[in-house]
Design a protein that fits this description.
This protein has a three-stranded antiparallel β-sheet with strand order 1-2-3, with no helix packed on it. Strands 4-5 form a two-stranded antiparallel sheet. A hairpin with a 4-residue loop joins strand 1 and strand 2. The protein is globular. The chain has one domain: OB fold (Dihydrolipoamide Acetyltransferase, E2P). It is mainly beta. It has no helices and five strands. 0% of the residues lie in helices and 48% in strands. Bound molecules: copper (II) ion (CU). The site of copper (II) ion has 4 residues, from strand 3.
Length: 67
């Protein structure tokens, strides 16, 4: 996970293929469903996350650091 932008409520994540979203590996910017999620992770950490397509936009619905 590359970057946390609390003002824009977005995070930049480099992810592997995500089968349920039909998405190949890439680095991309996701909005988050709840801005409080951004307090749980820091740039540079490895994270595990879930994303859904909501109103045509991929949104991170859950995120946690991987220890
Ligand atoms: Cu992607």
């Amino acid at each position: 996970m590359r970057k946390v932008d609390k003002d824009a409520k977005k995070i930049t994540i480099r992810h592997g293929p995500i089968r349920n979203l039909d998405m190949p590996a890439m680095a991309m910017v996701f909005p988050v469903k709840d801005p409080a999620m951004l307090d749980q992770v820091k740039a540079g950490e490895k994270v595990r996350f879930s994303a859904e397509k909501l109103d045509g936009v991929y949104v991170v619905t859950n995120i946690e650091p991987v220890k």
